[in-house]
Amino acid sequence: MDSLPFSRRQLLVAALAAGVLLLVAGRYFASAGASSADPRAARLRVPRLPVSPPRLVVHVVGAVRRPGLYRLRQGERIADAVARAGGARRSADLTAVNLAAPLADGEQVVVPAKVAPGIAGVPPQATAAAHGPVHLNTATLEELDSLPGVGPVTAQKILDYRTAHGAFASVDELDGVPGIGPARLDDLRKLVAP
Q1: 159 exposed, middle or buried (CB, 10 Å; 0-12, 13-18, 19+)?
Q2: Least packed by Cβ within 10 Å: which of 49, 80, 125, 192?
Q3: Over the stretch 26-57, which tens digit does the pLDDT of each residue have?
Q4: Nearest to residue 113, comparing CAs of 141, 78, 79, 137?
């Protein structure tokens, strides 16, 4: 067998050097080709994370089915907030609310109830006195909500208290309802009955 002019070690070093040279040349031409073809190509290859729009927190109260705090997307309207709160009750006066207005973070959306014909401008105390007291054991959420100082949340708490503890024996039992303190109880004494 004839001897080769190069040793095995020399051939291995030459092959390794050629491989490194090809790798460096490949990287150079790949980056040069991308930048010369389209300078934006390098930016297009970077994956973009989806950016969610900022969330707003709004407080929806009044004549809606589920009053409370709701998180909505930036750009949503008052109509969206009312829908998230379960929609307006039948007693709601939607003509008094601009449903197309955009929402702002921290805003309170108030959906008022319709005023009965012939009693516009009459304070709630006079209305309750004219129709007699609201009976705590038979009152609906809407009737309790119409009392001064009692919003839909407190009205629901009165109903929950009545369900948990049974019928009211006296007006003084309202003191056990969260959100009704001594001052509010004094205001309600003339307007409610057990």
Answers
A1: middle
A2: 49
A3: 887 776 655 555 555 555 566 676 767 788 99
A4: 141
Q: What are phi and psi of 93, to 5 degrees?
A: -105, 85
| Strands 134-135, 108-111: pairing kind | unpaired
What global pTM score does this model have? 0.39
pLDDT digits (tens, 9 = 90+) for 54-112: 889 999 999 999 999 999 998 899 999 999 999 999 999 998 888 998 988 888 888 98
Whole-number Å distance between alpha carbons of 55 and 87: 20
Task: Please choose, from the candidates 75, 122, 144, 83, the residue with its C-alpha nearest in 3D space to the C-alpha of residue 103.
Answer: 75
Per the rule left: phi > 0, alpha: psi between -120 and 50, beta: everything else, 113 is: beta
**Cross-strand partners of 102:** 77
Contacts of 77 (CB under 8 A, 6+ apart): 99, 100, 101, 102, 103
119, 138 contact by CB (below 8 A): no
Which amino acid makes up residue 155?
Answer: A
Q: How many CA atoms lie within 13 A of 175 on its CB side?
A: 9
Mean pLDDT for the chain overall:
79
